[in-house]
Design a protein that fits this description.
mainly alpha; MetI-like fold
């Protein structure tokens, strides 16, 4: 079989395998939101509604239909991007997401990307000289970062840079120009870097240590090959699949959980703040849309990871 045919079959197999996974994830998301989320009838009627009023509202919303029909309708509406209207504001949920998702990406992307690059550089340098000063520093930094929650990091950075030093705004979000963006994104970016540095640093360093222990790398170092040539020619390429898997899987978690904590704390009008407000007010259409699209993003990240891993390591295509 030719290489092109093998690549096509590998691509088709990965894409088809994502379909049942996507259905399973959306089914779980729909079930959790419907059965364990807030009751929209109670949220709309307020205090002390009569059973007749509750039944009438549920019938109007179609909540008294059988579960399979409700799930099928949910899938059809999701495919048409018909996400309903917010109970709190009456605005289409799709319009809310289109307005808030770019804000969250502008907020989260710098900290996520800078944290990955910084962790890769430090992890490779520490793994290259084990038990050195940098390796010990990475041990301390990773242990400290893993022991602190994002909330504590945000409060500490906000107190230092926003209150004591008065370098950056304490709350809010403005995009009037590059300076405003940098001022308002500085503290959230530092918080995301610090919160993810511990886990990334420990994982990346362990991967690099395993690669550096391979016989080809040890032989090349013994023969005096330049460190840059070894790192770029073999180490980074061999370490790419596990590192890529961790980075891709972390994207949905960072976008949703990281933005939720940071945006609710800083008052930034992104998808995290919208999610927090929806939880507090019982806005089920917004909650269902956020949960559904975060689940879909997770499945897409896994599928993209499989495809990229197959390109980097052809041996994985037969798995």
């Amino acid at each position: 079989m030719k290489a092109g045919e093998r690549s096509s079959r590998f691509l088709a197999r990965r894409l088809f395998s994502a379909v049942p996974l996507l259905l399973g994830v959306t089914l779980i998301s729909f079930t959790l939101t419907v059965h364990f989320g807030p009751d929209p009838a109670w949220e709309q009627l307020g205090r002390n509604p009569t059973p007749e009023q509750i039944q009438q509202v549920r019938h109007t919303m179609g909540q008294d239909r059988p579960f399979p029909l409700r799930y099928a309708g949910y899938l059809v509406n999701l495919a048409r991007l018909d996400l309903g209207h917010s109970y709190a504001s009456g605005e289409p949920v799709l319009d809310i997401l289109l307005r808030t998702v770019p804000v969250s990406l502008l907020l989260v992307a710098p900290g996520f990307l800078l944290g990955i690059v910084l962790a890769l550089v430090l992890a490779l340098a520490a793994a290259w000289r084990p038990h050195g000063h940098l390796d010990r520093f990475c041990d301390l930094a990773s242990a400290t970062g893993m022991s602190l929650s994002l909330v504590i990091i945000v409060i500490a950075l906000q107190a230092v840079f926003g209150v004591w030093l008065d370098w950056f705004p304490v709350r809010g979000w403005r995009l009037d120009g590059p300076v405003d963006y940098l001022e308002h994104a500085a503290v959230p970016t530092m918080a995301l870097i610090a919160a993810n540095m511990g886990y990334n640093l420990r994982f990346f360093r362990a991967v690099f240590r395993d690669v550096l222990a391979d016989p080809p790398v040890r032989t090349a170092r013994a023969y005096g090959f330049r460190a840059r040539r070894i790192a770029t020619g073999y180490v980074l390429r061999a370490a790419a699949p596990p590192i890529l898997t961790r980075v891709m899987v972390a994207i949905p978690l960072i976008v949703i959980s990281g933005s939720l904590i940071i945006e609710s704390h800083f008052g930034i009008p992104g998808v995290g703040l919208v999610t927090w407000n929806a939880v507090m007010s019982g806005d089920q259409p917004v909650l269902m849309a956020v949960v559904s699209f975060s689940s879909i993003l997770f499945v897409l990240a896994l599928t993209a990871t499989d495809l990229l891993t197959g390109l980097l390591d052809p041996r994985s295509r037969s798995a």
